[in-house]
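Ligand: nicotinamide-adenine-dinucleotide. Inputs:
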Amino acid sequence: MTRRLRLGVVGLSRAFTLMLPTLAGHARVQLVACAEPRPEARARFLQDFPGSRAHADMAALCRDEAVEAIYVATPHQFHAADVIAACAAGRHCLVEKPMAVTLAECAAMIEAADRAGVQLVIGHSHGQDGPVLAARRLIAGGAQGRVRLITALTYTDFLCRPRRPEELDTARGGGVVFSQGAHQLDVVRLLGGGLLRSVRAQCFGWDPARPTEGAYTAFLQFEDGAAATLTYSGHGRYDTDELMGWVGELGQPRDPAAYGTARRALAAITDEEAAKARRAYGPETPPLAAPAPPAFHNQFGFLLASCERADLRLTAEGVMVHADDRRWLERAPLPAVPRGEVLDAFCAAVLDGVAPVQSGAWGMATLEACLAILDSARTGRDVTLRHQVAVPG
Ligand SMILES: NC(=O)c1ccc[n+]([C@@H]2O[C@H](COP(=O)([O-])OP(=O)(O)OC[C@H]3O[C@@H](n4cnc5c(N)ncnc54)[C@H](O)[C@@H]3O)[C@@H](O)[C@H]2O)c1
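Predicted complex:
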């Protein structure tokens, strides 16, 4: 075990709240500073992380000499500027998905990291979930043959959660394609080898109160002849957690009787932006508990990868392998803390020099596929992809 990475975070967001058990409990990370404009969130940070420093803006965080690496958890539209500033200050970066909103931003981020000689990793992404990594290992082992066909279905209540105005405006990175397609495409690209050739898609926005994409379906072709179909809907009705044994996205138990909770809660809200802000980190965040080992993995819905000699189905415990004469569960080792795999990969990149899968080039390729879904839905045509990269190794 090497030393702990001294990490700062910019944006004490909902994403930060979800990563809190990971950041507080991971053996290789020490959270030493934050940057956040909301004073109440900064005060809570100092209380939760005694001895740390809380800055009001990114420039001050970049000047903080205790910080070696920065987790960028601000809204999408700030990712590029935050990463470029961190790199210019010589700090390694872990940036939330989607990497950015345009390919030009991604290219500038990659260039900034390369110029500074620092690591740039995209995460958290469900492409880093233990069962996805286990399926990738099985595929790389070759015993089941090549992946030929992938079917991915994710139904959630994403669109019914409180949102900032830009999250409901596609032109500013809103809608399910940027925020959720980034996860689903990451998983599918990882299992299919990474190199997409083309995308054909249709998007839907059938809720007039949420004027952005609430659902999409896409047909993807890989360079090697494999294909994938992806369906996502965030309308808070059917939920694919049912297909995952009523385990939720964060590996938590879901109550099948609690139908329509997000939809009802949204209907009762008068100030949506304030409700969204309350879901970010602050005085209302539950107290930091001692990190408990998770019972299940994070999951992002139903996924079946059909190989030449077996179908591989992701579960919240690992990979169910459906071969010719039997089926069995390949358990994926549970991380010591929820979402621990994200920081495993980031620390391996920064501290051990292990090239990350979710590099800048990988994140740009995933964003290209998100943008292709939107483009194809608009034009009704196949979109050819030009910035794809293979899974390393
Ligand atoms: N991987 C996941 O599971 C996951 C989950 C949620 C969000 N996300 C991602 O995290 C990012 C943040 O989204 P969110 O919904 O958590 O945001 P949020 O609205 O909950 O929080 C945004 C935070 O950033 C702060 N902020 C705004 N401008 C800032 C600035 N210039 N400098 C510093 N801080 C600033 C706000 O005060 C707020 O605390 C998005 O890119 C989103 O896609 C990822």
